[in-house]
Design a protein that fits this description.
The protein has helices spanning 3-18, 23-37, 43-55, 60-103, 107-139, 141-157, 162-194. The chain is mainly alpha-helical and 195 residues long. Helix 1 (3-18) crosses helix 4 (60-103), helix 3 (43-55) packs across helix 7 (162-194) and helix 5 (107-139) crosses helix 6 (141-157). The longest helix is centred in the middle third of the chain and has 44 residues, at 60-103. The chain starts with a helix and ends with a helix. The mean pLDDT is 83.
Length: 195
């Protein structure tokens, strides 16, 4: 097996097997495999891909696996990546369904599930903090805080669908950098004239 395919299969199997609690909780694991361990993408590209994947319908972890596979090996890579991500857990679900039904009332199993929840919360919090730090670095503290408050109001108070909020902020991002470049050029011309 090609080394790139081997890394892709191992990385996606790891995220599929170790992920717990649904798509968003698997994202830090996918980020670790893609950015830190194998360096398939950099942190900025991962963040942009995550934003676009959030705006599209369907499970987020599967979309991220498909994107990474496609980036590395085209259509075949996308198929291999998605299969590697979902097949182990699908087989485990089929094989362990009877055992799970039997153990669902066990206090030990309930305790194990409750013990894992804080770990997931910390992983999601850490990822959110890192993205917030990049936002403040790129836009500044004032604009970063304004966007945080605006997104909180849109998502939690007005209850706008997250995909719409993401598209709005992506649109603003394109507008922001055009204005910033225009203003930088204008200020540099004014400095040249005054010098």
């Amino acid at each position: 097996m090609n080394a790139c395919y081997k890394e892709l299969v191992i990385g996606m199997m790891r995220t599929g097997v170790l992920g717990f609690g649904g798509g968003p909780s698997v994202i830090p694991l996918i980020r670790y495999e893609a950015v830190t361990r194998y360096q398939w993408v950099n942190d900025d590209e991962f963040g942009e891909t995550l934003a676009i994947a959030n705006a599209l319908p369907g499970p987020i972890a599967t979309k991220m696996a498909a994107y990474l596979g496609y980036k590395l090996r085209g259509t075949t890579g996308a198929i291999v990546s998605v299969i590697a991500h979902i097949l182990p857990t699908s087989l485990a679900m089929v094989l362990l369904l009877a055992v799970l039904n039997f153990l669902s009332s066990s206090s030990t199993v309930a305790g194990m599930i409750h013990a894992v929840m804080p770990v997931i919360a910390v992983m999601l919090g850490l990822m959110a903090y890192e993205f917030a730090a990049k936002t403040v670095k790129g836009l500044g503290k004032l604009l970063g805080c304004i966007f945080f408050i605006l997104s909180f109001v849109l998502l939690q108070v007005i209850l706008v669908h997250p995909a719409i909020v993401i598209v709005l902020f992506l649109g603003y991002g394109a507008y922001h950098y055009k204005i910033k470049n225009y203003l930088n050029k204008k200020f540099s011309k004014n400095k040249e004239r005054s010098a």
